[in-house]
Amino acid sequence: MTISREHLIWMYETMYKIRYYEDKMAEAYAEGKNPVFNIGAGPVPGEMHLATGQEPAAVGICIHLTKEDTVSSPHRPHHHAIAKGVDLNRMTAEIFGKATGLGKGKGGHMHLFDPNVKFSCGGIVGAGIPHALGAALAAKKKGTDSVAVAFIGEGAANQGAFHESLNMAALWNLPLIVVIENNQYGISVPKSSSTSVSSNAIRAAAYGIQGYYVEENDPIEMYKVSKEVVEKARKNGEPAIIEIETYRYLGHFQGDPEVYRDKNEVTLLREKDPIVRMRSILLTEHGIEDMQLAELEQRAKQEVDAAYQFARESEYPEPEDALKDLFV
């Protein structure tokens, strides 16, 4: 399968943007929380889950989606949101709890919603799968060719919502695609201690649908697999499972002491950095010059920096507005 130069460039720039965004969020989140970690302090209070290292899962499939396709995301949502095209200014303002945010500062990091690009996320494990299932059912009822993608972690594949939703999608031929980001740990529990199968992709056979496994956090392979899966979902309403072997370089949450894994593990994982690999592929196999990539990187940084400036300069909602728009 040949991947166009345009798609390769978009994937690289978006992966770079995600990484830079998460690095900036890690810095912003740490403000005011140390030397003794205080989850409620600083400009970004509450729990924070970053997706550094998991970029291929998001860009590899979102490159094939349109604004009319639905994406649901779990509690680690920033990479999915950026790849789907969520408004970066309003998303960042929401995370900072500002009135200019997607939810006027009421939802925060784990509750990002942008109906303009049909993106939603919720903090409960596995909760986004039924939402995506509903969107897939709506697409079929309306006679459109839209698809729905539910991103989940490998731990959520052990939830009842996973099995019930996939069974219904298979029974009714609904265009539901479940992308499992196997980052090796469900909070602090290794996959080998929680799941009886080596790959959740093989569970697809139980529902009579296709399952695919992408090894080594490979953005190119994720692109190829996703292209086939999305095309089948659009044309025939075929649901599918894609599991990608990915890695989170940071803890389950910011401030996580990570006593459950060897620090050398993260060092080894970073040696397989998918952004570095993608950059090398563009330089050596596609004739893209280093200067061109540097320009893409600078553009991504400027967009992210502008979003953070917008968020910091935005006003907090007035206390009397706290309950407005909640009940309609």
TrEMBL record:
InterPro entries in the cross-refs: DH_E1 (IPR001017), PDH_E1_Alpha_Subunit (IPR050642), THDP-binding (IPR029061)
Segments passing through the bilayer: none
Keywords, ordered alphabetically: Oxidoreductase, Thiamine pyrophosphate
Any GO BP annotation: pyruvate decarboxylation to acetyl-CoA
Record bears the keyword Repressor: no
Cofactor entry: thiamine diphosphate
Gene3D superfamilies, sorted: 3.40.50.970
Domain of life: Bacteria
SUPFAM superfamilies with a match to the protein in the record: Thiamin diphosphate-binding fold (THDP-binding) (SSF52518)
UniProt domain Dehydrogenase E1 component: residue ranges: 46-320
MF terms in GO: pyruvate dehydrogenase (acetyl-transferring) activity
Family annotation (PANTHER family): PYRUVATE DEHYDROGENASE E1 COMPONENT SUBUNIT ALPHA, PYRUVATE DEHYDROGENASE E1 COMPONENT, ALPHA SUBUNIT BACTERIAL AND ORGANELLAR
Name of the protein this chain belongs to: Dehydrogenase E1 component domain-containing protein
